[in-house]
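Protein in question quoted in full.
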Amino acid sequence: MKSRFEGNILGFIGVNILAAIIIFFTIGIATPWAMCIKYRWEIDNTTIDGKRLQFVGSGTDLFVHYIKWWILTIITFGIYGFWLYINLIKWRVENTEFIN
């Protein structure tokens, strides 16, 4: 099985600048949308065994989860933060699929 990443430095810089602008001008509220932009670029530029991957997650869906996860982190005085990261990875993988 051979994996390839086809992104380039200009795309990487562009996506990160766009994400930073979104986060800055929304005072962090749109962070889930910025994260989805970055995830989409990374995953859409990846192939595994000749099959291209596609990210199908949305900022709105992540926003709902994000709020829930942060509330749980605050309620548990930061302890849930360990699970927040794991849940974020799970969400990202669940929203990644092969293009037929």
Summary: The beta strands are 3-5, 46-48, 51-55, 96-98.
